[in-house]
From TrEMBL:
Domain of life from the UniProt record: Bacteria
Gene Ontology MF terms: exonuclease activity
Name of the protein in question: Single-stranded-DNA-specific exonuclease RecJ
Keyword vocabulary terms for this entry: Exonuclease, Hydrolase, Nuclease
The UniProt record lists the keyword Nuclease: yes
PANTHER family hit by this protein: SINGLE-STRANDED-DNA-SPECIFIC EXONUCLEASE RECJ
Record organism: Amphibacillus indicireducens
Length: 769
């Protein structure tokens, strides 16, 4: 057995699936069954974009902005330092510039100002002559800054998409889908809201901004459905052929050529734009997107790429330190992990929290301690079953600042509140979560047979792209025997194999699961869940399964019979509840703790998951009794016949008859002088001849005098099976045939029968048999 890392949620009934083709089933899984909705999903059209005028606050915003332009007022676009924020900032600045506005932009410094609008920044804006501030991707929780703006006589327009708190800040206008009753789609990203404002201000649909909208929307992990899907689908097309020098340079340093997809954005472009604001000021990111100078773009892209590399190193170091802390404090971080340390870079703590969530399957909050200010500040990420924002709101009085989404939050608290905050979050999670909630959920869309799959299958699936939140790349369930198992990668931390089913093979790769190699038997059925993709290598395109998770439901047999190197395959057992059993008290070179049979306590072995057999039992029933009691998940047969009698040449009845007839003809047989001749003549071993003679002697068929055997004159007729010596030999032959010379399936069948025999007996007793 091999347990899956995640909980597999099968979202379909196989009986229903058989009536539909692949695409129809995937569409049904997404709630798309009507012809019109399917057509709109598969062919997203810009004509289906919702009218921006439906957003509350846009009319008031446009009137105030037009007034500012007419009167020559200075407008400040106040953005955020992530990819969503910098793309939103760029869009609004370009739109205002096109309208002839006197405008500039401001991105707060994560380290000196923190998240969102702040009073000091607004005071500086007032002193610099700005009279109108427009926020993008931020501001819905900026209560103090909004009050400051009112006191200063600054008009404030808030455009945002983050979760709305119990009340709204005071502002000239608020543009937010979730406070707009008439707006049909509530899940726009910050850049999507800024795009709506730009569309409304310009009076035409600004296609030139679609590349930026795609980046910000994908980066902010909002649902890729409805108009987000339309904007991203067309935005990726624009991004593939963008004429923005900054984006062209960014694609170059990220080694992106040709068509750009959501993966390129999510794993290459967005992380680089995010990195700038995580480590330094986010201004270079906005400058990169705004510049029309190719040389400046190249210089900025190179700088941003170096910052991203530095960010990766910092994340790796902090994650290592955070894991060390978690390992030492599991008792207090049992349901929600909260770790804090002086000197951690707050800009990357969200990424570190995500790594902790994946590692421990727990909500995680990472905080940097600022002793000079007396505060702890950082970010949190969550599991699907725990709404971090909602639960945080229940204890928000313990925090100085708090905001975010269900799965991601940012917070500031006093240092002496960290322990109480940890207790509060853990108490909430303990009350609301069940044990199964702490296992990552994996939605499985279909079970497929390998023979159904081809390169065209992937092309069909890609009709559903772009994939993302609420439209995930589909994961499929497949079964088969894993062949050609091997570890790959510089650190041997990835697993590659061919999944074989009915003589059809599917190349498969499981990143990060290299240590599973010795845990998977190539002879047992492996279940995998993964996504199908096309692998291109040296001009050849082939189908490949990218494995997300795997499991073996049945007990496994690892067959190392006769191998001299079996102990090299069992190093992983030091992490398991194993029993390494010796029936013969053998002393072997192994790192495993060996338990002799006479020291075995069968009453206290229920926790054993893995059983290692390093030699053969004296009798089959010894092993049978142990298996029925322990019921291990996995069995490792590591024995050989060294030092033991080989019973493959056990005498047949005809062998006994021939030797009896031989004695009748010869009258006498001198074993010491004649055994070699008989052995050569019959092709027998000396042991075989001795066994026959011992059986005859026990049954009184022969008598012996000085190594000379002769038949008894009066022989009482008896069956060979009446000889104890014969019976013992027969049992030894059966043991060797079954445990050593049998094929894999024969051995496994017998072992599993012994494990299940108690259950069968109890079943029969219940049924009255």
């Amino acid at each position: 057995m091999l347990e899956s890392q995640m909980s597999w949620n099968f979202t379909y009934k196989q009986s229903e699936v058989e009536e539909l083709d692949l695409i129809d089933q995937l569409l049904r899984n997404r709630g798309l069954t009507e012809e019109n909705s399917i057509k709109q999903f598969l062919n997203p059209q810009l004509a289906d974009i919702h009218q921006p005028k439906l957003l509350a606050g846009l009319v008031e915003s446009k009137q105030r902005i037009e007034q500012a332009i007419e009167q020559g007022e200075s407008i400040l676009v106040f953005g955020d330092y992530d990819a969503d924020g910098v793309t939103a900032t760029t869009i609004l600045v370009e739109a205002l510039n096109e309208l002839g506005a006197m405008c500039d932009y401001y991105i707060p410094n994560r380290f000196t100002e923190g998240y969102g609008p702040n009073s000091e920044a607004f005071r500086q804006a007032k002193n610099q002559g700005f009279s109108l501030i427009i926020t993008v991707d931020t501001g819905i929780a900026a209560f103090e800054a909004a009050e400051t703006a009112k006191e200063l006589g600054l008009d404030l327009i808030i455009t945002d998409h983050h979760e709305v708190q119990e009340e709204l800040p005071v502002a000239h206008a608020i543009v937010h889908p979730k406070v707009s009753d008439d707006y049909p789609f509530k899940e726009l990203a910050g850049v999507g809201v800024a795009f709506k404002l730009a569309h409304f201000l310009l009076g035409y649909f600004p296609k030139q901004f679609l590349d930026l909208v795609a980046i910000g929307t994908i980066a902010d992990l909002v649902p890729l459905i409805d108009e987000n899907r339309i904007l991203v689908k067309h935005g990726l097309d624009h991004l593939s052929k963008t004429d923005r020098p900054g984006l062209r340079a960014l694609k170059e340093v990220a080694s992106i050529n040709g068509e750009v997809d959501e993966q390129h954005v999510g794993f290459a472009l967005a992380p680089r734009l995010n990195a700038v604001g995580r480590l330094e000021s986010a201004y270079p990111a906005v400058q990169l997107l705004l510049t029309r100078d190719p040389e400046e773009a190249q210089s900025l892209a190179t700088e941003i790429n170096l910052i991203n590399q530095e960010r990766q190193e910092i994340v790796s170091q902090i994650a290592e330190e955070a894991i060390t802390i978690v390992e030492q404090t599991k008792d207090i971080n049992h349901s929600v992990i909260i770790v804090a340390k002086e000197g951690w870079n707050e800009g990357v703590l969200g990424i570190v929290a995500s790594k902790l969530v994946r590692t421990y399957q727990r909500p995680a909050i990472c905080l940097t301690l600022k002793s000079d200010e007396g505060i702890a500040k950082g970010s949190g990420r969550s599991i699907a079953a725990f709404d971090l924002f909602e639960n945080g709101m229940e204890i928000h009085e313990q925090m100085i600042r708090f905001g975010g989404h269900a799965q991601a939050i940012g917070l500031t608290t006093e240092i002496d509140q960290v322990d109480q905050l940890r207790r509060s979050f853990n108490q909430l999670a303990s009350q609301k979560l069940k044990p199964e909630d702490f296992k990552e959920q994996l939605e499985v869309e279909l079970s497929l047979n390998i023979e159904q799959l081809s390169l065209e299958t992937v092309n069909q699936i890609n009709q559903l792209s772009p994939f993302g939140m609420a439209n995930p790349k589909p994961y499929f369930h497949l079964t088969g025997q894993p062949q050609e198992l091997k570890q790959i990668g510089a650190k041997k931390n990835h697993l590659k194999f061919a999944l074989e089913q009915d003589n059809q093979k599917l190349s498969s790769i499981a990143f990060g699961l290299g240590d599973y190699l010795p845990r998977i038997s190539p002879n047992d059925e492996l279940e995998v869940v993964g996504e199908l993709q096309i692998n291109e290598w040296n001009g050849t395109r082939s189908l490949q399964l990218l494995v997300k998770d795997l499991q073996v439901k049945d007990r496994q047999l690892f067959d190392y019979r006769g191998s001299k190197f079996w102990h090299n395959q069992l190093q992983h057992l030091n992490d398991q509840d194993y029993l390494c059993l010796s029936f013969q008290k053998q002393l072997l070179e192994t790192n495993l703790k060996v338990t002799p049979l006479d020291q075995l306590d069968l009453e206290n072995l229920e926790q054993v998951t893995d059983l290692v057999l390093i030699d053969l039992p004296n009798e089959l029933n010894e092993l049978s009794q142990i298996l029925s009691k322990i019921k291990p998940n996995n069995i490792y047969t590591c024995y050989n016949l060294d030092g033991q009698k080989d019973w493959t040449a056990f005498p047949s009845r005809d062998d006994f008859k021939w030797f009896y007839g031989f004695l009748m003809k010869r009258k006498k047989y001198n074993h010491q002088l004649e055994q070699k001749q008989v052995a050569n003549y019959r092709g027998w071993s000396h042991e075989k001849i001795e066994f026959i003679l011992n059986v005859f002697y026990e049954l009184k068929f022969v008598k012996i005098d000085n190594e000379v055997f002769s038949l008894n004159d009066s022989v009482e007729k008896q069956q060979l099976t009446e000889s104890n010596f014969y019976q013992k030999g027969l049992r030894q032959k059966e043991k060797q045939d079954l445990l050593y010379y049998s094929n894999y399936q024969q051995l496994k069948t017998w072992l599993m029968e012994q494990i299940e025999q108690d259950a069968r007996i109890k079943e029969e007793e219940v049924d009255g048999l």
